[in-house]
Amino acid sequence: MGSRRPLIGVTTQTLHAIAGIPEELPVSWVMNQRYVHAVMAAGGVPVLIPLLAEDPATLREIFERLDGVLVPGGVDIDPAFYRSDRHTSLGRLDPARDTAEMVMTRWAVKEGKPFLGLCRGLQVLNVALGGTLWQDLADERTGSIKHDYYPTAGFARDHLAHPVEIRVDSRLGAAMGGGAVPVNSMHHQGIRDLSSRLVATATAPDGLIEAAEGTEDHFVVGVQWHPEMYSHGEPPTGRLFDAFIAAASGESRLA
To answer: 98-134, pLDDT tens digit by residue?
Structure first.
């Protein structure tokens, strides 16, 4: 028999946190299928993580069975997590998701379990480790380029919005290659103060941090774009899932 495929936990979001869903409907947990298929294509076995913020013991039991944790894109993080007042441009929040993902992320970083954060997932990683965010780049950050290429505004989810400059000497660089790489972009927030436990590994043309990874010797990577939208071909951003699944399989500590 072949080796066991790694079990990858994919966090979910509360259906109420999606704009336009009536609040009186029963609560559901959902997630875009693209994340699930990207994990499968790279060789992992995906499972969706329920947002049991009120039951950390059960969350812990789930975590212990996982070989890796993936935190996908989604709604804004409550700025109370990084000790800030709410900006007027702050979107809808998902308190249960915030709590569950912060806990899972801290566990993964502390205990050396491979972690991949995508878009919101990068922001969760930074905030969970003590960093802060710009709540609205266009309003708060002078000189920002456009980052909010949302499908609701007519842009395809795989639209290559701008390049990022990737550090060669990084896990991200090992997976995707260094230098300028085009990425898609669907966010209005971004890293303001980077956690002291992370190092920036990619930047946008305006200098915004677009990727960061842990300083310890295990796979902790977050990117501000959506690599789940791409296959293993071009652009090279799709290769990031291969490196994550390899790390979750125990194939390489530096993969």
So the answer is: 999 999 999 999 999 999 999 999 999 999 999 999 9
Q: HSE on the CB side for 104, CA within 13 Å?
A: 37
101, 119, 162, 187: which is the annotated catalytic residue?
A: 119
Does residue 213 have an active-site annotation? no
- For residue 174, what is the domain's CATH number? 3.40.50.880
Catalytic site includes residue 228: yes
Tell me if residue 101 is catalytic.
Answer: no
pLDDT at 149 over 80: yes
Decide if 169 is inside a domain. Answer: yes
Say what the pTM is: 0.93
Number of domains in the chain: 1
Looking at residue 36, its amino acid is V
Domain that includes residue 19, residue range: 7-248
Check 101, 210, 213, 228 and give the catalytic one.
228
